[in-house]
Design goal:
Layout lengths: L1 E5 L2 E6 L3 E3 L2 E3 L10 E10 L3 E10 L2 E9 L14 E3 L4 E2 L1
Antiparallel strand pairs: 1-2, 1-9, 3-4, 5-6, 6-7, 7-8
């Protein structure tokens, strides 16, 4: 079972993660969305497409852009569509 944890709070937990480039992508139903706030930030990956970001907010502490997802990935990355990955100090174990 993989878990994403920040500030002692479990943000996501699942045994159905997809690993791409060393990142675990959690299925959307396993993510505790009450800790994620959408932000107006995107980046582009040549083979995955456009990534959208969330700030992670726990007990008033904000970790800007610490989670991301691909709502409409390019065909080679369709297996991560809608799934959420974490970084920037979020521990994934």
């Amino acid at each position: 079972m993989a878990r994403a944890i920040w500030e002692g709070t479990i943000l996501a937990e699942s045994d159905d993660c997809v690993i791409v480039e060393g990142n675990r992508y959690f299925p959307p139903e396993s993510v505790r969305m009450e800790f994620l706030q959408p932000v107006d930030k995107t980046t582009v990956c040549a083979w995955k497409g456009i990534a959208n970001y969330y700030d992670v907010v726990v007990d008033g502490k904000r970790n800007p852009g610490a989670a991301w997802y691909y709502s409409a990935p390019l065909p080679p990355a369709r297996n991560i569509q809608g799934r959420v990955a974490f970084w920037k100090g979020v521990r994934v174990e």
